[in-house]
Design goal:
- There is one protein chain.
- The chain has about 220 residues and is an alpha+beta fold.
- The protein is built from five helices and four strands.
- The chain has one domain: VirB8 protein (Nuclear Transport Factor 2, Chain: A), CATH 3.10.450.
- The protein has a four-stranded antiparallel beta sheet.
- Strand 1 and strand 2 form a beta hairpin.
- The C terminus is likely disordered.
Length: about 220
């Protein structure tokens, strides 16, 4: 074979290797980008969820109206409807102002159960300390919240809220056990140093609604 043939063959192989290298680099770059976007989405959803919980459950007489308005902006779908019903039924704003209720929230822990670039499921452990009329501490409520989150433009909004209690956790474990192929062995309770469960409820409550005081 001529020298010219070998030169042409080597050049062709070199070009093929360059193309293959470019393809591999592109694939690796796209994978890295997708991974980075997914990680960023997890962090953004978690930050938004914790901020929403702090605003929703933490307030005092001079800012409760603003906190309710800010909370509504961070909700959508079923969560927005749930929250509006609670606010109206408890007459929260008026009662907080009348009885001088102060609610402070401490996020003990929070994490992402599952997520995509546009959706996330969060679990939040928090303590809520409530005082009334400037008196000493009235109650401390430890809660486990589950927030379903969805991206809306550049923001993350809560679309559903579940308050998890021991009963609700047991019910979910029972549902899993009843599924075909599920193990019949009893599932252990999730080990956690998290706060005790919130009072049984199927809807989110911004705080125990203050009871109206009788008018003299």
């Amino acid at each position: 074979m001529s020298r010219r043939f070998w030169t042409w063959t080597v050049s062709l192989l070199a070009a093929a290797l360059l193309v293959a290298g470019a393809v591999i680099t592109t694939i690796v770059g796209l994978d890295y980008r997708d991974t980075k976007l997914a990680e960023d989405a997890r962090g953004e959803a978690l930050d938004a969820g914790k901020q929403t919980a702090a605003v929703m459950f933490g307030y005092q007489p001079d800012n409760v109206e603003q906190h309710v308005a800010d909370t509504r902006k961070s909700l959508s779908g079923a969560a927005e409807q749930q929250y509006d019903e609670i606010i109206k039924e408890s007459n929260l704003v008026a009662e907080v102002q009348k009885q001088q209720v102060k609610s402070e929230v401490s996020i003990q822990d929070a994490g992402v159960v599952s997520s995509t670039r546009d959706r996330a499921l969060l679990l939040i452990f928090m303590n809520q300390s409530v005082t009334k009329g400037g008196k000493d501490l009235v109650s401390v409520n430890a809660s486990r919240l589950q927030y379903s989150m969805e991206r809306s433009g550049d923001e993350w909004k809560v679309t559903n809220i579940d308050i998890l209690t021991d009963d609700s956790v047991k019910a979910r474990l029972a549902e899993e056990a009843d599924k075909p192929g599920a193990s019949t062995a009893p599932a252990p309770a999730p080990a956690s140093s998290a706060p005790a469960p919130a009072p049984a409820s199927s809807a989110p409550a911004p705080a125990p609604a203050p009871e109206p005081e009788p008018t003299p």
